[in-house]
Amino acid sequence: MRKVISKILFLVGFLIFIFPFVIRVISYLNQTTAIYSYENTSSNMSQEEKENELDKSNKYNEELSDQTPIINFNVDESVSSFDFLNTGEVIGTLIIPKINVELPIYDGIENDNLQKGVSLLKNTSYPTGEPSTHSVIAGHSGLSRAKILDDLNEIQVGDEFLVEYLGNTNNYEVIDIKVVLPDETDSLQIVEDETLVTLVTCTPKNINTHRLLVTGKITQMPEKIDISIWDRVKAFILDYYLYIIAIVILIVALIVYVIKGIKKRRKKNNNIKINTNGGNN
Questions:
Q1: Over the range 129-153, which residues count as b (16 or more CB within 10 Å of their CB) and which as e?
Q2: What is the C-alpha separation between 188 and 122, in angstroms, rounded?
Q3: What is the pTM of this model?
Q4: Among 97, 226, 210, which Cα is nearest to 158's?
Q5: 90 and 164 in contact (C-beta within 8 Å)?
Q6: Which candidate among 24, 99, 197, 278 keeps its CA 20 to 30 Å from the CA of 212?
Q7: Cα 193 to chain center, whole Å?
Q8: What is the pLDDT of residues 81-90, one digit of tens each?
Q9: CA-closest candidate to residue 88, choices 36, 22, 131, 15
Q10: Residues 6+ apart with CB under 8 A from 221
Q11: Separation of first and last alpha carbons in the chain
Q12: Residue 261 dihedral angles phi and psi, to the nearest 5°
């Protein structure tokens, strides 16, 4: 009985240990699925459909540049500024090669969106790559269930990131990094003739009293800048090596336990056969 209880307690403890790992794997798969779904939808759009969507985005951005929009970091439960009927809820992809990040961009700061990827702040420009625009893309840090912008603090001035939007990919070079209070949003305003994107996350992790702002300016696309599958695998292993080691150890232990059990049963059966044969003689 004690052995059974010990095994149950061990199993329960192990399941509790790997639960965060399993949740993050599921989150990663959901992020990847959302990106592939968006890319598939975007690639199937006709040129005319893409131009219509870009026209709507540009008109919205032009109206925004003629005013001083009120920007805040609060969660907004409202719908997006206008419906992207052809792309669904994901409107683009954020890629940060240095920290091996590739995330779906959602339209609007809603709790559900922030659990799945990054979101475009309301009253900021859509990332069309046109002048006089300033897109602000926000994401969580320190979530137990998903890794979003946890490593954004590793980015330095001169690093690059990419934003894919309606089939067009633009490259941005980081020109400014600052930490501000949540109500300090002056640096997020549109600058005439500049094409800017600012990435935002809470800092310090799990305390969230301030906001880390990483601002990039559009630049020429280099010959090659992407995240290879091997890079993602390496990043995944480095993030979760303790869980991976524990799972490998458990699998090996289970295999050894099963093999020992099989050998024990075989030995027991052989002893029974010998005793039976001896009794018959």
A1: bbebbbbbbbbbbbbeebbbbbbbb
A2: 12
A3: 0.77
A4: 97
A5: no
A6: 24
A7: 31
A8: 444 434 457 8
A9: 36
A10: 169, 170, 171
A11: 38
A12: -65, -40
CB 148 within 8 A of CB 24: no
Tell me the two tokens of residue 169.
Answer: 């990919």
Give the type of residue at 51. E
Strands 90-96 and 133-138: unpaired
- Amino acid, single-letter form, for residue 139: G
The per-residue pLDDT for range 90-141, each reduced to its tens digit, is 899 999 989 888 999 998 777 778 888 999 988 899 999 999 999 999 999 9
